[in-house]
Amino acid sequence: MSRLREISLTSRQSSDLSFQVDCIDPFDRSNDNLWIKLEHLGRYLFAADYLRSPRLDCVADIACGSGYGLTELGTIADRLIGIDQSAEILNDAAQAQGSVKPTLLTHDLDHDAWFTSLEPGSVDAIVSFETLEHLVDPTRAIAKFSRLLKPRGICICSVPNVLHEPRGASGLPTNASHKQLFSGRSLRHLLEQHGFQIEYQLGQACANLLFKRESQLLKHKSLKQRLGNYSALHDPAVVRHLSYLLAYPTVEDIDGSYSLIVVAQKC
User: Fold this and answer.
1) Which of 189, 179, 37, 199 is nearest to 109 (CA)?
2) Domain that holds residue 177
3) Per-residue pLDDT tens for 30-66?
4) Considering its fold, how many domains does the chain have in total?
5) Which residues pair with 198 in a beta bridge?
6) Contact 89/25 with Cβ under 8 angstroms?
7) How many C-alpha atoms does 39 have within 13 Å on its Cβ side?
8) Which candidate in 31, 63, 72, 103 could, as Cys together with 131 as Cys, close a disulfide (CB 3.0–4.6 Å)?
């Protein structure tokens, strides 16, 4: 690797380091919040690896955002569906690079009755990361997921861990777009209520631990800048490498993770 180039703190210091940025592109070089980028990509790397064999007919990414995850999921399915409530952001998802061209649909999980152009029982796997906490009625969304999946279909989803979710004086999440707080238990219960069997619960404790340690060292002036302020680390190949190394979901120290990831199978 070439020598790391330091970036001016005055011009590139991240303005939001609270893990509350909800829609990002891990390969966006203008975003220097490295830890958030690694966590977001790490979840998709895991999902693609978990679902890789046998090759699936159809995978849906619900709340796909800008579509970087569609590129990963396109390597493991013959058909790919990307769903988001924002038509504007789906324009970015349309640029996702991969061997499978995704079908993109606009859908509001809280308000729309059913997924446009999709038949019940037509999808082998659903991936939906950092979605349920944004909904007034996540139960409605999980019911849709169950209906959309084939029998024995897989749902891989994630939510922020209530143990690490910042809250204001009223007890509500400081991230105004978050409407729910989840523990591992409440997430499992929500899925089990709709006919899912929990296969695994995972977390990304390493990235969260390193982010907090870096914050402490900055506060005590032991460090002068964040790791994300080194431009070479935002090379796409390096981001991918670091996501596998530091933010790939595991079953170790789940409570130490900012995000709870669950793999569930429709019974």
Assistant:
1) 179
2) 29-266
3) 999 999 999 999 999 999 999 999 999 999 999 999 9
4) 1
5) 264
6) no
7) 32
8) 63
